[in-house]
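Narrative summary of target 7.
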Amino acid sequence: MSHILVVEDEAIIRSALRRLLERHHYQVSEAGAVHEAEERFDLADFDLIISDLRLPGEPGTELIRRAPDTPVLIMTSYASLRSAVDSMKLGAVDYIAKPFDHEEMLQAVSRIIQDHQRRRGEPQPSTAPAAITQPEKAALPGSSMGIIGSSPSMQTLFKRIGKVAPTDSTVLIQGESGTGKELVARALHEHSRRAKAPMISVNCAAIPETLIESELFGHEKGAFTGATAGRTGLVEAADGGTLFLDEIGELPLEAQARLLRVLQEGEIRRVGSVQSSKVDVRLVAATHRDLKTLARQGLFREDLYYRLNVIELRLPPLRERGDDVMLIAEALLQRAASNMQQEGLHFSPAAAEAIRQYNWPGNVRELENAIERAAILCDEDEIPADLLGIDIDPEFERASEASNALETMRHPDTQSHEPSEDLSLEDYFQHFVLEHQEHMTETELANKLGISRKCLWERRQRLGIPRKKTASS
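Modeled conformation, tokenized:
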């Protein structure tokens, strides 16, 4: 059992994190400050140290120096995200923003411990997230990349990853939300010559537009109100390694111009600076949006689009992956059974058929949630179909099919873009929203259309459909 030390001065956060990790079969010790951790424990005995950045007395980064052979994961709020960049330069294995998603934390912990134990030549733990991670006993193609897939579309993807990873070419990953674009980015990094250097992941949609330039490119002291000291940006922190920009379609135009200079000249200029410095960064970007269409609409720089689209990798949605859905479902169920210490869980024939037939608009993420819920609620070893919660009515199917047709037609690989067909699908979306928004929340509208709330908001903006302010929404 892997042993983790949590160093956090806020008792509520510390105990919540301890419970989360212990539920997933990690042994956890805790401390409220660096000096307390050093006095109570031998830091070399831990497989991982998770520490808050800001602590009473010495900062959490001091643990990097005091435990040189133990990986340190730094927790930080978005308000101090710039300091996390400095943490990476000091030797932190990774950082995670607070408030963190439980699944994001578990995936980071599992990945770091596996990497650490692999370097030491130890057996790897069995607690690795299995969302699309290959079970050990099933040596299917893509297992070396940590991704399940035997369908033709995934076979093609694995071959392309194998060819592209050793190069320094810029890669654009296209795929719907929940398909695992970050896993593809990580596979590209880990199979490249930059694997020993950091991979910095940035969700462009998660950082406020007013901060994103300084977060990415850094800033000089006095560059703007509140800039009391110069800061290193995330691009510079990835020097020598890989920069992964998720949801790059959300990047403001000003930041796009700066990023273009990084790609063209290999140079970065901090906000408020008149001098540039060289950086050696391999860029991997991902989006669920059609950047070419955005470029035509003036919402994305056309020159940046062509710089990004050197190599395009398309991650297919779950509904296009055939029998892969059951391979992933079985891996997820195996993980859930292990976490609950309830061996023997299996799908009933009706549940397995429901999994195969359902459209999975939320892709692997939705599948994972459905199986976790069913495993928790199940009273027997056999999971019935009703516990999956994926019963769909005809209206949902019609809306989802229309939405999927729209996404397929808008994909860059699609050759057909006839205006009349595009108009009919846009018209369907507009009609459905206007007809139902009086009595449905935004979440319900998105679910009925088979899209995310974020995608619903984007289409409202594009089509000029104002959102009705109701008490329920």
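Residues 194 and 241 are 5 Å apart (CA to CA).
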